[in-house]
User: Fold this.
Amino acid sequence: MDSQKVAILGPGSWGTALSQVLTDNGHQAILYGDSAQQIKEINEQHTNTRYFKDIVLDERIYASTDLKEVLKEADALLFVVPTKVTRLVAKQVAGLLDHKVHVLHASKGLEQGSHERISTILEEEIPKELRSEITVVSGPSHAEETIVRDITLISAASKNLDDAKYAQELFSNDYMRLYTNTDVIGVETAGALKNIIAVGAGALHGLGFGDNAKAAIITRGLAEITRLGVAMGAEPLTYSGLSGVGDLIVTATSIHSRNWRAGDALGRGEKLADIEANMGMVIEGVSTCKAAYELSQTMNIEMPITETIYKVLYEGLDPRSGILEIMRREAKQENEFN
Assistant:
């Protein structure tokens, strides 16, 4: 692949890590953000210490607060902004973009209110004549490990296989490997909903439960993620892949995960408002939990773990009492689809 100019919208941990991957692959990575101080640090110090304290970035990585500059002559746009601002940023992009580009995203969540997936938001806000089919880049990937070139395998999903192959070629190298997929719904719902289960797994740890409980919530969490996703039109097999069980394992078992850390703090008795204030980063599992719970109620899909975490986050349910509620549910066969 010839060198591509890639505009990365969102200079957070994952956007920064992916800019390093792209630069390693010989592409021109330009980060867009709205914090002048952060942008200045990236350009002058070649660091992004809000997310990576000891990492020096490649000097070829450039950042800007000027969206028009970032979009100029870009071959591809990569959205890595929090779900809650995706629509706003997409509207801004649509108002400034003057040529057709590949559009990708590497965020994970469902929009509050509409319950829409991120690719749907991008399809609605960016005119079709200005973009490719949306490609979702998702899978088990801690930015803290990718930035130091640890081995990372993820999925690239698009309705158009050629667009997925573009992302595969764009990012793949000796430490990052991408597999193509056409099940956009499956890859997106898996990436969004696993954050909810990670909050629950963290809460179990904070409460003092062990590996048995960890295995239980991951396994049963995957069952209810699959249940909702398939009802939305996803392929069941996707949830057995990198973007499904792979991402769930890495997010629900690691201190790198802000969702796991938030749950752990909840389990130890901290208040959600304090956790969010101290985290300094968006905890997608918190907002996604509300959207997923509302969606499951609308679609009449049983999601007991998600429902319990929703009650803990939004209704003040004590986490330990929530666990007892789940354990006392009606006995079922394991392979029942509920």
The chain has a mean pLDDT of 95. The radius of gyration is 19 Å. The chain is about 50% helix and 10% strand.
